[in-house]
Amino acid sequence: MIVAAVALPSAACSRPVLKPCRTRLKVVACAARAAVKEAVIPAGKVTVGFLQANDVQGAGLLLTRAFAGTPEAVKLDEAVKFMQLHINDEQECTLVAKLLPTDPALLPPGKSARLVGVVSLSFSATGREDFRSLAPPADQPYLSNMAVDPKFRRQGIARAMLEACDSAAQGRAQDTIWLHVRQADEAAQQLYTSYGYSEVVRDPASAPGVFGLLLGGGGAQAVRPRILMKRQVAQ
C-alpha cells in the first residue's frame, strides 16, 4: 500500500508502503462497483478503468517514477509485484487512467493508448500501512497510490481518477473516502481541497519523527508530517 499520493509538481504527498492485501477475492465483484470514467483533456481523451494484466508493468513504472528521487522512492520490482497482486483483489481496487491522444506521437510503440495515471482504493484495513498516527477508519474506503505521468499533470487526470474512486465507493454503499497528504505538499492539498476533501487532523509540525513500515519489509523509517483528510461522497 502507498499512502495517498498525487504526483503533481512535487513528486508525491506521502511515503510508499507497498504492503499486499492478504485477502484475495474475485475481480468481477470489484469491477461491478464502479463505472469507467472519461474526461477530455488538452492532449486527448482519458479513460479511467480497472487495472488489467497488461497494465501491470506500466502502472508499476509510473508509480516508481512518480516517487523517484524522494525519500518515498520505491523499487520497480516491488511496485510491479504490488500491481500484480491487486489485479484480482476485491479489497484493493486499483484504477488506471489511459490517454487516447490526439497526437499519435504521444503513444508508446505498438500501443493504442498511453497509461498516464494510477490510484488505489482499499475497502479493508487488512492490506494497509500499519499506521502509527492519523489512522483512517478501518471499515471505510482509503485512497492511496495516486500518481500522474509528469508530462500530463494539471490537465484533469487526477480529478478524473478521484471521480472514479467516488463511483467505487458508491458501489459499496460507502459515503466517506479518506486519504493522507504531506503537509509540505501544497499542490496536492489544493487538489484534494478543491475536489471536496477536508482536513480532519494533522501530525504536529514539531514532531517529524513519525514512523511507519516501508514496503512491508518490517523496517521503520522517519516520515514527514501528514494531514488526514476525508470527503463525503454523494449517494
TrEMBL record:
Domain of life: Eukaryota
Stretch forming the signal peptide: none
Residue ranges of coiled coil: none
InterPro entries per record: Acyl_CoA_acyltransferase, GNAT_dom
CDD domains: NAT_SF
Protein name per its UniProtKB record: N-acetyltransferase domain-containing protein
Residue ranges constituting the N-acetyltransferase domain according to the UniProt record: 69-230
Pfam families: Acetyltransf_7
GO MF annotations in UniProt: acyltransferase activity, transferring groups other than amino-acyl groups
Species assigned in the record: Tetradesmus obliquus
